[in-house]
Design goal:
The structure is a homodimer of 699-residue chains. Chain A is of the alpha/beta class. Chain A is built from 29 helices and 26 strands. In chain A, strands 7-17-16-9-10-11-12-8 form an eight-stranded mixed sheet. In chain A, strands 19-20-21-22-23-24-25-26 form an eight-stranded parallel barrel, surrounded by seven helices. Chain A has a five-stranded antiparallel sheet with strand order 3-2-1-4-5. In chain A, helix 7 crosses helix 13 and helix 18 crosses helix 19.
Chain lengths: 699, 699
């Protein structure tokens, strides 16, 4: 509303020097109706009781024949930020005509000609003097406001009138370019340039987007869980997704919801659509981690798995039909829309370089595979803050050994199955250590409840029973036995390590052997073993001892491999007793996803039923899974930071929840003194910029 | 071990005047083997490195013919506490003979004769002089130790030797009687008398117990979830339980686990046995609330619902077969054992009277029905701290309207169903208000997720669909839609009130109208409406406004009915933000069951899989569902108390979790300054005594 304030001449508002400029161009034009005035007052917090000011002003007319015109100009190109004067105008017209699109506007200058406007006149050509005046004023305005301007003007019988100027809207790409250029032009300091780019918006630069020109036939709308555009044939199961993708087809996986069983299908698909779940549902989290477009909680859609169709109202989309997902808006679109992959320009690297110099927080990534690790490093990750080992087990080739381990009826059988998993895990870790070349790698030991690894469907049960040489009845009995009412608060995390110490021992061995072997090859390694779901100091003390017993011998004499042991702080009780827990921890990593779920009593997989109501009706101002809830969960984090460092001043502190890629949360982490945040690979640049902005804000 | 210390003459232990007494009877006899010495040292924390002391002592012999004997005596009756000298002896025998039970021991005196010992001599008869000496020494010992003594003696050729004296073991009934008598005899102060009774043990006084003489054939063993004895015919479903009970049969409900659907069956049964679940599983909590014997997590048993049998190893128990549960030990016993209902003597009332004068904490009860309320008042409850309204809906006659409400597809249908529930609820509350006669009644508005009210079995679905004039498919779809991954953290508590305000409005109306009507009848009423599962201050602010809007008009001008609105603090975030929440709360009631589950990430229904391992291996020293975890959950409570009272100094604070009936937790509540605890009716006397003991301990 800045521009409106500038136009307003009532004494309630300060007079700014720029108003001398308005004098230079004649007068200020205003034709506010009463509605607009009321809205303006409300927006500016002026009581209606003050009444409506009466503005008596001369009108200017762009439609007084030849020599009159009206138009819009940008001081730089709002689509890519190039420094060039850019705009459109119409001769003998009023502002509405430009906006309404009835006549094709002409380019403001020769440089601005594009396909389709070659034959049209330009203002530069037809009214060179007025054009030069406009250009000069535009430069003056940009310099005054220190930002790219969006200017509305009218020419009445050869005389130029400015109607409005304001900071222009721009794409993410343009925002980066303009900020960097303005800093190079000394109009902005580097700190100011860093603040000029909305870190959230960077996300758009990192994913392919839909061609904004293409027409959209919208089938439904869900939550924009992971940005980017996905185009492909609809499939309803992870297996079909994998099968068709192997055959070279692009597919979009459509499900009511996803589970860890669907990981291979999500990997294979271009994008994921679910009818249930929220911004941090399984589908959303995994897709963001993969950098894959995803729309969740699309209530307009109803999947019929048996008929292999999805209904959007009356519209039926069958398996194989093409759809397009816009992960940035949540639109589900019929058919195949063209996509664009934005290129990262030099300005992006410059800005990121400034950010890296300015920030105090390190930025790591959540990565489970060497591929993820490499992508994240290319985006500037300085380590892995969360490597989830369970995803490694869901691979169809491995899950059988995992299932054998779970179904083992005695320790010998279990050891036997674990022996099959050991070399596989060792290889995983080796590849990740090599990819990270000595950067710290935080590996979380097995976390999810064991029933997540077992089959639940009849057909799959038969296959697994046959493969494991057991009966379906026995398998079903074990599945039933492992069933939990509230799995999030059940037999998972370090509780598995306490009840089945051989599992964690195997994982520790795999990590240590991989570290030893990579170190032998002359590559530095810095593994950090993270024990999940600790709620009591004794759990960590006991499991640390277990891990150290296994590791000590393997790493003896390996100077290139130094291993740390720490814990995830994700249970409220752990935060409350952080002083005691710190006695056995080299580091804390705040798992704010689960910490939010437990502290808020909010299951992210179930919250879709009421969270939208909460946000809409204003009970909550923000989704606590998107930005850290500072009053509640934040207070707990601060407590844990203080208590942990009280016991161990050098305690390394990080955050590895989804919040690590959210600018507001990154800023919070900076304020409370964490050492690093860790986020999904595609969010690393966002976190880097946000961390720099936080540093600037603190200074 | 006090008595052993007394015998020990090493200089490490203080000499007590009582040793002069030993002198009086000749010498101290000792025949410790090396094992016993080692155990003694360990128990007393004396390092083994100190070596074994060599005791060279004369032996005494009770088997040196006539005039020699050995025996055991109690200064008061250990079974009921009566003040009479009580004991047994054998002529010409050593101690082992008394213990081994090869010969029937003789009564020590004439008073002690019972059926079966009429024909035997008594010590009083055969050695009157020695008997009088023993009696005199016994009195002296009791006076010295200020407690009932258990004395071992040997008579060698007419000379009396005391081998040992110690505070005697006693039943709960005897403990109460002895404490009261000793105080009346001025051997103890009233404060000391209060501390002499283990509050836990009172539980035994309040439930029927199995005849300890009866022989037990044990089928299996589970967790002793709710004390008392239950005898009846095995049934496998709540419906059959109800049916048979109506026909006058005593039944024991046996299930893998129970759910709210089973409530009517639990009410109907004498006791409950489950094969799954822990001390705070649904079955355990509900059974304790009902004061009904219950054994849970009986891993030895396997229920086959279809065959209607339960296997205990190779043993098969069929529907209708009799079994007996010992809720105090966890024993499942074949057949029907005789039970005894202990009578509460005058001493109990005296002790409780002293406790009531001494305690600062109020004691309320958790009661959902007028019957519960009356039982609790008879046990001394000073109000209802938790009246769960959902249990009222599970009644088969009402659940249909509840289901209609849940399945309503629009607000009008929902209002229609709620209109049917309103008069029913009003009647419930009226009856409870009348039973409590002006004592405070805290009513929790609807808390559980709605799917708990819907049928899940095929047959039941068909019945419900027919009754509600809908299709099974539609019903099944709604059930599926309401399914939650982690229902504890799902769409429940005040979230129902936010998304379906008409439900809470109906409940508030029912409460207010009941209060108005009872007040009109001249009876005072003090309802307190409690909003559950609040995690954010705005939830409470909004729902308080909703409730007040409904209530204001109804209660206008009713001087006898003052209504308060407060919240349950059961979500960690609520404790953390208690200062803001207190702005809309007249009271806080700590729901430590859920608070423990969330703060500890510990689902009580699932914890049975690993909690036993934790307790056995010493990772945890106690089950946090039994006694409040002071370091974790306790720290959170203290924080909430401080923050809540900071905002509102007069804030009333209570606790209504299962912990309200646990002496250690009651003591904690006293220390942190709560106003009251609330527990199941049968635990009210325990809480009263524990509260008094806490007061004594603090002074």
């Amino acid at each position: 509303m800045q521009e409106l304030v500038e136009q307003h001449t009532g004494r309630a508002f300060p007079q700014k020097p720029i108003e001398q400029l308005w004098g230079a161009v004649g007068a200020v034009f205003s034709s506010w109706g009463n509605d607009r005035a009321v809205r303006y007052r409300r927006l500016n917090g002026i009581s209606d009781a003050l009444g409506t000011a009466v503005n008596v002003q001369a009108m200017v007319f762009g439609n007084m024949g030849e020599g009159s015109a009206t138009g819009v100009a940008f001081t730089r190109d709002p689509s890519d930020g190039t420094k060039r004067f850019y705009g459109e105008y119409l001769e003998n017209a009023q502002g509405e005509d430009v906006v309404a699109g009835i006549r094709t506007p002409c380019p403001i200058n020769e440089e601005g000609r594009t396909r389709g406007t070659e034959h049209l006149p330009s203002l530069e050509q037809t009214m060179p003097k007025v054009y030069r005046q406009l250009l000069r004023l535009a430069k003056q305005l940009e310099k005054h406001y220190r930002d790219m301007q969006d200017i509305e003007f009218t020419i009445q019988q050869g005389r130029l009138w400015l109607l409005q100027t304001r900071s222009g809207k721009r794409t993410a790409r343009a925002a980066v370019q303009i900020a960097v250029d303005l800093a190079k032009e000394r109009l902005l300091s580097r700190d100011e340039a860093l603040l000029r780019v909305d870190a959230h918006e960077l996300d758009r630069l990192l994913h392919p987007i839909l061609d904004p020109q293409a027409e959209r036939r919208i089938l439904g709308r869900g939550l924009p869980a992971s940005p980017g555009a996905a185009v492909g044939a609809v499939v309803f199961s992870a297996d079909v997704a994998e099968e068709r993708a192997r055959a070279g087809e692009k597919v979009v996986l459509v499900r009511a919801e996803t589970s860890p069983d669907d990981i291979h299908g999500m990997h294979a698909a271009e994008g994921v659509l679910t009818t249930r779940g929220g911004m941090t549902s399984h589908a959303a989290v995994v897709a963001r981690g993969m950098g894959k477009p995803c729309i969740v909680g699309c209530g307009d859609a109803r999947v019929d798995d048996e008929a292999r169709v999805v209904h959007f109202g009356d519209e039926v989309v069958r398996e194989g039909d093409r759809i397009t997902l816009d992960g940035g808006t949540g639109d589900v679109i019929a058919g195949e829309l063209p996509t664009i992959l934005p290129e990262l320009g030099g300005a992006f690297d410059v800005l990121m370089g400034w950010a890296d110099k300015r920030r105090r927080l390190s930025v790591r990534t959540n990565a489970d595979t060497p591929e993820d690790a490499r992508v994240a490093r290319s985006f500037g990750a300085e380590g892995i803050g969360l490597c989830r080992t369970e995803h490694m087990f869901f691979d169809p080739a491995r899950v059988l050994a995992m299932r054998e381990m779970i179904l083992a009826s005695n320790a010998a059988q279990r050891e036997n199955a674990l022996a099959k998993l050991l070399p596989v895990q060792r290889k995983d870790f080796e590849a990740i250590f090599r990819a990270m070349e000595g950067l710290p790698v935080t590996i979380r030991l097995l976390d999810p409840p064991l029933h997540e690894f077992l089959p639940h469907k009849e057909q799959e049960m038969r296959e697994v029973a046959a493969a494991l040489d057991t009966s379906v009845a026995e398998l079903r009995a074990r599945v039933a036995e492992l069933h939990e009412f509230n799995p999030m608060l059940g037999h998972r995390g370090c509780r598995l390590g306490i009840t089945f110490p051989e599992i964690y021992a195997m994982q520790a061995r795999a990590i240590a052997e991989a570290a030893r072997d990579v170190a032998k090859a002359g590559i530095r390694v810095a593994p950090e073993i993270m024990i999940p779901l600790v709620s009591h100091p004794k759990e960590l003390a006991r499991l640390r001892a277990l891990v150290e017993d296994v590791v000590r011998e393997i790493l003896a004499g390996s100077r290139r491999a130094a291993l740390k042991v720490g814990t995830m702080i994700e249970v409220p009780r752990a935060a409350l007793t952080a002083d005691a827990i710190a006695e056995s921890a080299d580091f804390f990593s705040f798992g704010t996803n689960d910490l939010t779920q437990m502290t808020y009593a909010l299951s992210r997989d179930d919250a879709a039923k009421f969270l939208p109501d909460y946000l809409e009706s204003g009970v909550l101002e923000q989704d606590p899974f998107v930005s850290i809830d500072e009053e509640g969960i934040g207070a707990l984090l601060e407590m844990a930071v203080e208590r942990g460092r009280h016991t161990r001043p050098g305690l390394k502190l990080g955050l590895c929840g989804e919040h690590g890629g959210d600018p507001a949360s990154v800023s919070f982490c900076d304020r409370i003194g964490l050492d690093y945040v860790s986020c999904s690979p595609y969010r690393v640049p966002i976190a880097r910029l946000a961390a720099a902005q936080a540093s600037v804000a603190r200074s």
